[in-house]
C-alpha cells in the first residue's frame, strides 16, 4: 500500500501531544508504510518522538504554537486557521503536503476549516459527519450526519444517503448497502415533510431500470433499531444524529458501569464474574468507543477524520487507520461517481437549498 502521508494535529484532544504521537506510532507499528506530518509545538512533539524511535524516519514536524480551544467558537477559530495546528493540518491536505488530516480537536472548528479550505465535491451542498458503530451482526452500521448540520432538507438527506453508502461499501464491503432514514416510526406517513420527500426521492432513484444508485433504500428506521444490524446506513440531520449518538454512548457506559457494580457487590458476584469473563470481555470490546474511533467528514475534496477528544492511543491509531483506508479506496472519487449516477433531476427542483441554514451541532 503506497499512500501519501497523513497530517496529524498533534495538539488536539484532551491529552494532546503524548496521545496523538503515541497513537500515530501504534498505527505505524501495524502498518509500516504509514508516514506522517505532525503539526504542533516542535519541542513537545520531538520529546514525544523520543519514546517512539521508529517514528523518526517516518515523520516530519510542522511547527506551530497556536491551538484551537475545545470551547472556541468556529467563527473565531476560522480567523486563526493559518496560525493553529488544526488549521495547518487541514491546509496540508489542500496544498497536497498530505493526503488526509486527522484531528481530535474542536469538532465545529474542524468542520468549518475543512469546508472552507477543501470545499465540497460537485453536487454536494454540505458535508456531513459520519461514523461507524457496532451492531449485533458481523458488520458495523454507518450513521450520518452526527453534528455537522443542525438542519437538513430532503436534498441534503439524499446526498447524505449517497455519501454514507459509498463509505459503507469501503468499511463493510457491501455492493449495495441497505439505507434507511432515521424517523419516529417506520410507517410512510410518519416524520417531517423533509423526511417523506427524501424517502420518495431515494425510492425512485434506487428503483430505476438502469440499476440506479449503488444502494438499497428501505424506508425508515427507529432509533432503537440502529444497532440491530438490519440497516447498513442510517441517515438523519446533525441535530437528531448527535442526540442519538450520545444516547447510544451513554447507554453503553450505563451498561458497563452497571455490570461493574453487579460483579463487585459480593463474593458470589466476583466468582460469577470470573466464570463469565470471556463474555464480558467481548461485551467490553464492543462497547469501547476507541475500537470504533474515527468519524469522517464526507463530501469534501479531501479526507478529514475526526478523532474523539477523549480517545486513547488505540483510538487515535484507529482514526489514522480509517484515514489511510479511505485514501486507499479513493473515497472522494467513489462519492463523485455515485453522485453522477444520481443525476440532478432525481433531487427534485423544490428541494434545492438557497443557502446555508443551521450550524454545527455540539459533538
Question: Mind explaining what this structure looks like?
Answer:
The radius of gyration is 21 Å and the shape is globular. It has helices at 17-30, 42-49, 74-79, 85-95, 107-118, 154-171, 193-206, 238-263, 267-275, 277-287, 313-328, 331-342, and strands at 6-9, 36-40, 59-63, 100-103, 128-133, 141-144, 178-182, 216-221, 233-235, 295-298, 303-306. Helix content is 43%, strand content 14%. An eleven-stranded mixed beta sheet has the order 3-2-1-4-11-10-5-6-9-7-8, sandwiched between helices. It has 363 residues and is an alpha/beta fold. The relative contact order is 0.17.
Determine the structural class based on helices, strands and strand pairing. alpha/beta
* Strand runs, count: 11
What overall form do the CA principal axes indicate?
globular
If you average the pLDDT, what whole number results? 84
Q: What spatial order of strands do you see in the largest sheet?
A: 3-2-1-4-11-10-5-6-9-7-8
Main sheet attributes: strand count, strand direction, barrel closure: 11 strands, mixed
Portion in strands: 5-15%
Please compute the radius of gyration using only Cα atoms.
21 Å
Number of helices: 12
Our measurement of the CA-to-CA distance between the termini, rounded to an integer number of angstroms, reads: 33 Å
Q: Which regions contain 5 or more consecutive residues with pLDDT less than 50?
A: 349-362
- Relative helix content: 40-55%
Q: Order of SSEs, N→C?
A: EHEHEHHEHEEHEHEEHHHEEHH
